[in-house]
Write a structure and sequence with these properties.
The structure is a single chain. This protein has helices spanning about 5-10, 30-45, 90-105, 130-135, 145-150, 155-160, 185, 225-245, 280-295, 315-330, 345-350, 375-390; strands spanning about 50, 55-60, 70-75, 115-120, 170-180, 190-195, 200-210, 210-215, 250-255, 265, 265-275, 300-310, 310-315, 335-340, 355-360. Strands 1, 2, 3, 4, 5, 6, 13, 14 and 15 form a nine-stranded mixed sheet that branches. Strands 9-11-7-12 form a four-stranded antiparallel sheet, covered by helices on one side. Strand 1 and strand 2 form a beta hairpin. It is of the alpha/beta class and about 400 residues long. It has two domains: about 5-195 and about 310-390, Zn peptidases (Aminopeptidase); about 200-310, Alpha-Beta Plaits, CATH 3.30.70.360. The protein has twelve helices and 15 strands. The chain starts with a helix and ends with a helix. Bound molecules: zinc ion.
């Protein structure tokens, strides 16, 4: 009955590394090999297939009602270097499995079904979620470095702008994905009903002290920017845990001047990235950071906002349908935010959007150890299949 595992394994024939990981970088030969595998599967299922300049593969299964709008499903086919089998490819395999089951049962839905295998969702020279941003018209043609990067792929900015499509003929977008975090695995729940994709707020914080001789400067007279930054990081980490248990803070980069063993650091610069569904939580976090900096008087701090990507919310009605579908297949479930970005984010700017998560063992993702149990993959496809059927019963 279920073939989602087989379809996923077939896609995994592209970009499989000897160590068990997968590398399908956007616009690479192994990426386009995966596109061909998906194209063949779509054609085998009787879908009308086309591929756009952005590298997205797109299949359409006509519905019986010419006035009904499309139910769109999708995810991405690219991976990070040495990534896993499941991230992205599972969502495409799940969507193909839905169409396969419809064909097998001889049912034609009223609504057309569309499937996208998106290119370049992962971090890359043209920017993440590139394929889904191209079709939703969310690529900024003046983005620094875009023209050169596209040129290296033999594409022009104008060709990408022309990939934008009309969504007046579409009803909604659904994405099935592995959680890529440890929440579902931790609590032993089978299905995540996603309520939205968290916002990402990123600051550059600089501590400015005074460089001096590491041997002659007494400890009490030092204005050490590294020590001040270390205090800020440790205290901010503590405050983050107090503000909200789903708020996350990461200090992922550090630069030190003059970066020498025998000189007290005079300047240290770090990135502070925070993510949450609600802007008030990230606002509270940056306010807490500002308060902490006032208590550290050996240096001055400069705080500069760099990125503020707002959260997107899943459609409440689609969330209810996903919840009902999960109940019907006897799955335990939990409403949760997505801490990772997805193609569902750009798509949510154009259409009502829903996402279904299945557990990731030990929360591992973007690595060769990424793993989800075959029965969990099947369960996710079951929930997607039933959700599509429920959506088809509506206008
Ligand atoms: Zn992904």
């Amino acid at each position: 009955m279920d073939q989602v595992n087989e379809i996923l394994a077939a896609i995994g024939q592209a970009g499989k590394n000897p160590d068990g990981s997968y590398t399908r970088i956007s616009f690479s030969p192994s990426y386009f090999q995966a596109v061909e595998i998906v194209r063949n599967k779509m054609e085998e299922l009787g879908m009308q297939v086309n591929q756009d300049v952005a590298g997205n593969i797109h299949g359409v299964l006509p519905g019986s009602d010419p006035k009904a709008k499309s139910i769109i499903m999708g995810s991405h086919l690219d991976t990070v270097p040495s990534g896993g089998l499941y991230d992205g490819a599972y969502g495409v395999a799940g969507a193909l499995e839905v169409v396969r089951r419809l064909k097998e049962s001889g049912v034609q839905l009223r609504h057309p079904i569309e499937i996208y295998g998106f290119n370049a969702e992962e971090s890359n020279p043209v920017g993440g979620t590139f394929g889904s941003r191209a079709i939703t018209g969310l690529v900024d043609p003046h983005q620094p470095g875009l023209e050169e990067a596209l040129q290296s792929y033999g594409r022009t900015v104008q060709e990408i702008m022309d990939c934008q499509r009309d969504f007046n003929d579409a009803k909604c977008y659904l994405e099935l994905h592995i959680e890529q975090g440890d929440h579902l695995d931790d609590i032993g729940v089978q299905i995540g009903v996603v309520r939205g994709i968290v916002g990402i707020v990123r600051y550059k914080i600089t501590a400015i002290g005074h460089s001096n001789h590491a041997g002659t400067t007494q400890m009490k007279n030092r204005r050490d920017a590294m020590v001040a930054m270390a205090r800020l990081i440790a205290q901010a980490d503590q405050r983050c845990r107090e503000i909200d248990d789903t708020l996350v803070l990461t200090v992922g980069t550090i630069q030190c001047w003059p970066d020498s063993e025998n000189v007290i650091p005079g300047k240290v610069e770090c990135s502070f990235e925070m993510r949450h569904m609600d802007a008030e939580k990230t606002d509270a976090m940056i306010q807490a950071i500002e308060e902490i900096t006032k208590t550290i008087d050996t240096v001055t701090f400069q705080i500069e906002k760099q990125i503020d990507k707002g959260s997107v919310r899943c459609d409440k009605h689609i969330m209810q349908l996903i919840d009902q579908a999960a109940e019907e297949v006897g799955a335990s479930r939990e409403v949760m935010p997505s801490g990772a970005g997805h193609d569902a984010n750009p798509m949510a700017h154009r259409l009502p959007m829903g996402m279904i998560f299945v557990p990731s063992k030990d929360g591992l993702s973007h690595c060769g150890e990424e793993w989800t149990a075959p029965e969990d993959l099947t369960r996710g496809a079951d929930v997607l299949y039933r959700t599509v059927q429920k959506l088809d019963q509506e206008d």
